[in-house]
Design goal:
The radius of gyration is 39 Å and the shape is rod-shaped. Helix 10 links the parallel strand 7 and strand 8. It folds into two domains: 113 residues, 2-Layer Sandwich (Signal recognition particle alu RNA binding heterodimer, srp9/1), CATH 3.30.720; 136 residues, 3-Layer(aba) Sandwich (Rossmann fold), CATH 3.40.50. By secondary structure, the protein is an alpha/beta fold. The chain has eleven helices and eight strands. The strands form two sheets. Strands 1-4-3-2-5 form a five-stranded mixed β-sheet, with helices on one face. Strands 6-7-8 form a three-stranded mixed β-sheet, with helices on both faces.
Length: 286
């Protein structure tokens, strides 16, 4: 599995666990308690003889008064409600207060621990998200000078000369290039040299790109396609770096075909730019 997908799943699980912890914490509050009162108010009600029963669940208390009202409260952690009542001068047996201690479940304890660590988990998830964003921006920065050419595998050609119609003369000339790519030894034995490049000219929509892809499909070699405008950036040296990276990839996949669409975007006359500095297009051409 992709490591990025694993991290995304981990973050989503943390969010789900955090939401579940909040939900169960809210739901686990004592039912039937109309309002929450401080422990000092519980002690004063016991002194006044207004309490009927107290249910203890961990640090949570559910208090029932003699008039039928119910309240919730929390005692101090580690302390006993009986000791607090006795320190205030309340005799449990004499006051007939029914004190019941309910055992906490393991699941409730787990939720309590999870709720205590909830802020740490939340801020950890935010930190992890920020690190992922920074890592993505860093990768984009280091790949800024890389070629953006699209690569089509020659093992599964999608376009052939049968898909191109109306340019028979151009097809005949390009078929020679295809034969040279398929059987270079036969041509080299005759002293022939493969052309360094082929310039396809014509108005938009006549099939120049389709023709180039057909050559790559017939020759069953990788096909690199890129637009000339992608070499030109506002930062100096980026275009030249992308040209070098493109031809480095082409050398690693040789034999192959490199197709540069709209090459006139960078192939204008040198020195035609305004000002005395070097234009980025000239840096790319060099």
């Amino acid at each position: 599995m992709n490591p990025r997908s694993v991290r995304s799943i981990f973050i989503y699980l943390l969010i789900i666990v955090a939401i579940a912890a909040i939900f169960f914490t809210v739901v686990s509050e004592p039912f039937g308690a109309s309002s929450e009162i401080p422990i000092s108010r519980v002690v004063s009600m016991a002194v006044e003889g207004k309490l009927d029963s107290i249910k203890v669940n961990g640090d949570n208390l559910v208090i029932s008064s003699i008039d039928g009202q119910k309240f919730s409260s929390r005692k101090e952690m580690g302390s006993s409600i009986i000791e607090q009542l006795e320190s205030a001068g309340v005799d449990q047996k004499a006051s007939k207060i029914d004190i019941t201690v309910e055992g906490t479940s393991g699941f409730g304890n787990l939720l309590g621990i999870l709720f205590n660590f909830l802020p740490l988990i939340f801020f950890g998830a935010i930190l992890l998200f920020m690190m992922r964003q920074a890592q993505g921006n860093t990768n984009q920065t280091f790949s800024f000078g890389k070629s953006r050419a699209k690569v089509f595998d020659g093992d599964s050609p999608e376009v052939s000369f049968a898909d191109v119609a109306g340019v028979d003369e151009a097809k005949e000339e390009l078929e020679e290039v295809v034969e040279f790519l398929k059987t270079p030894d036969r041509f080299l034995a005759l002293g022939a040299k493969i052309p360094k490049g082929v310039l396809l000219m014509g108005p938009p929509g006549v099939g120049k790109t389709l023709m180039a892809r057909a050559v790559a499909g017939e020759a069953e070699v990788p096909f690199f396609s890129i637009s000339g405008s992608e070499f030109v950036e506002m930062f100096v040296g980026v275009g030249a770096s992308r040209v070098r990276d493109l031809f480095d990839q082409a050398k690693r996949h040789a034999p192959c075909i490199v197709f540069v669409d709209e090459i006139d975007a960078v192939g204008r006359q040198r020195g035609a730019g305004l000002g005395g500095g070097h234009d980025e297009r000239e840096q790319t051409l060099n």
